[in-house]
Design goal:
Blueprint lengths: L3 E2 L7 E4 L8 E3 L5 E3 L9 E3 L8 E4 L2 E6 L8 E2 L4 E2 L26 E6 L5 E2 L3 E6 L5 H15 L5 E4 L10 H15 L4 E8 L7 H8 L7 E5 L6 H16 L5 E4 L4 E6 L10 H14 L3 E4 L9 H5 L5 H20 L10 H6 L4 H8 L8 E5 L9 E5 L5 H10 L4 E6 L11 E5 L2 H6 L6 E2 L9 H16 L6 H5 L14
Parallel strand pairs: 12-13, 12-14, 14-15, 17-18, 17-21, 18-20, 19-20, 21-22, 22-23
Antiparallel strand pairs: 1-2, 2-5, 3-4, 5-8, 6-7, 7-9, 10-11, 10-16
Helix pairs in contact: 1-4, 2-3, 2-10, 5-12
């Protein structure tokens, strides 16, 4: 394995594929010998030609920031000598890029899924318990536990998703909570849903029903805890009815064009933009080329790379919606007195990511090369085939919850640092490096680090695609499913009384 990689011919930096020691020499593409001036951790950047103070430093062929001082060849490039080149709100022009040739290799592929009464396709036959308010988290947890002991063998799982909201929220903040939870109620991975209310909360069951819209009473049942004598007994009884309803469904062949994948990264490192994120981009292209839906989120981690997505908009209308998506999130930062470009996180920096534009250029690779077909508001459901952008922050659990609510059957989660969590849907953890994959076998579902050693991108794309189809067909389970790690988090931006 080579000790470094350059991602674009114009880049003055190379990425260390192993730790580089101060004083050692490496050979560049033209045979030039470069002496390393500092210890450079794996995944971090080493400068291969001098850069002057204020000059842009490129990676992926794009600027990832400006040099804070003159930097000599062989130096370690990181937060001590490189700063963001971004600042303030921007104006954008629509400059449509040529559409990439679609990957149609999977157009005839099917998975074994469930077709619901409303025609939606699901990949799991589960019972979900959704509470309207955080006061009854433990009640719902107890119902799920008792019901699972009685009916768990009849379905793919009985799950409750705790959250703290629904009480004392006002205005748009309450509407966002209702919209997000209502989209989860409608998710086709749930064969049946029990909605549990308390009775005195702002998120009353009657108003929540309005947020859900039309529903099948055989599939969605409601219980107001303050109105019944024994909410645990009745709750378990209602889950039993839902489990019986779920048994009327069986797996049937479903075209992959009905599949929706959420795209997310977290705990990134310097290899994220080299291994796992480009791999997921290939999967996104394969799915959208077959008529399926890929959903990309983490809006703040589009800052600095947003024009790449804007210029792939399907038309001027979608371009305008992407501009609004970006500027509205920047306005959210400004409204709260926060620096727009304050990123990445400490874990990202430790992994080799220096600036937000560097993080964003790696992050957006998960969207592949497809045309952007739609922009989805927070809490809404993806309806257009192709690549969609979803309004949500970078926070791992908040964004995975939003992807699930948007209808993603599976979330592909790339990581260089690792995390055990899972969202409401199967969450495939994809390691950027082999060390993480080997050390955290109970977290990681797929090792993209092999790309740097013994696998080609084509081989890994085929392997990951087959694993996704197997998961969608119920033939394989993700680690978050096996471990019982199912969580949600709701984005909050408003007043609580």
């Amino acid at each position: 394995m080579n000790s470094w990689v350059r991602l674009h011919a114009e880049d003055p930096v190379a990425i260390a594929l192993r730790p580089l020691a101060k004083g050692e020499t490496i050979s560049l593409e033209d045979g030039t010998r470069l002496e390393v001036q500092d210890d450079v951790p794996q995944g971090h950047k080493v400068l291969t030609r001098p850069v002057r103070e204020g000059e842009h430093v490129l990676k992926f062929g794009y600027s990832i920031g400006r040099a804070k001082a003159d930097i000599a060849a062989g130096a370690w490039v990181h937060t001590h000598n490189l700063g963001t080149g971004l600042g303030g709100l921007l104006e954008y022009d629509y400059r449509p890029a040529a559409a990439a040739e679609p990957d149609t290799s999977a157009s005839a592929r099917t998975f074994q899924g469930y077709i619901r009464e409303n025609g939606e396709a699901g990949i799991r036959n589960e019972i979900w318990i959704i509470n309207t308010v955080g006061c009854i988290n433990k009640t719902c947890e107890a119902i799920a536990r008792r019901a699972d002991s009685l009916y768990g063998s009849q379905v793919d799982g009985i799950h409750h998703f705790a959250h703290p909201f629904g009480c004392s929220q006002l205005g748009d903040d309450l509407l966002h909570t209702q919209k997000l939870l209502a989209s989860l109620v409608r998710h086709p991975n749930a064969a049946g849903v029990l909605v549990v209310g308390l009775g005195c909360e702002n998120n009353q069951i009657d108003s929540f029903k309005a947020a859900i819209g039309d529903y099948d009473p055989a599939r969605v049942k409601f219980m107001r805890s303050q109105d019944v004598e024994d909410e645990l007994e009745l709750g378990v009884e209602l889950v039993g009815e839902l489990a019986a309803y779920a048994q009327t469904f069986a797996r049937v062949p479903v075209p992959v064009s009905r599949l929706k994948l959420g795209l997310k990264c977290g705990g990134s490192d310097g290899l994220s933009g080299i291994t796992a994120n480009p791999l997921v981009g290939r999967i996104a292209d394969r799915l959208t080329g077959a008529g399926g839906t890929a959903i990309l989120t983490e809006v703040p981690e589009m800052f600095g790379a947003e024009t790449i997505l804007m210029n792939r908009a399907s038309d001027a209308r979608v371009f305008g919606r992407i501009v609004d998506l970006i500027n509205d999130f920047k306005a959210y930062f400004i409204r709260h007195g926060q620096e727009i470009y304050e990123n990445p996180s400490p874990g990202n920096k430790a992994g080799g990511i220096t600036t937000l534009e560097e993080k964003s250029l790696g992050c957006t690779q998960k969207g592949g090369q497809a045309i952007v077909a739609d922009v989805i508001p927070y809490g809404a459901v993806a309806t257009a085939p192709g690549l969609s952008l979803l309004e949500a922050p970078g926070n791992d659990l908040v964004s995975v919850t939003a992807l699930s609510a948007a209808g993603a059957h599976i979330v592909l989660f790339t990581t260089g640092r690792g995390t055990p969590f899972g969202g409401p849907v199967p969450t495939v953890k994809i390691a950027t490096n082999r060390e993480l994959a080997a050390r955290k076998r109970g977290w990681i579902d797929f090792d993209a680090g092999r790309l740097l050693e013994d696998r080609t991108m084509e081989e890994l794309t085929d392997e990951l695609w087959d694993q996704i189809v197997s998961i969608a067909s119920g033939e394989a389970r993700t680690n978050n499913e096996r471990n019982g790690f199912r969580e949600i988090a709701i984005f909050k931006d408003g007043v609580i009384l």
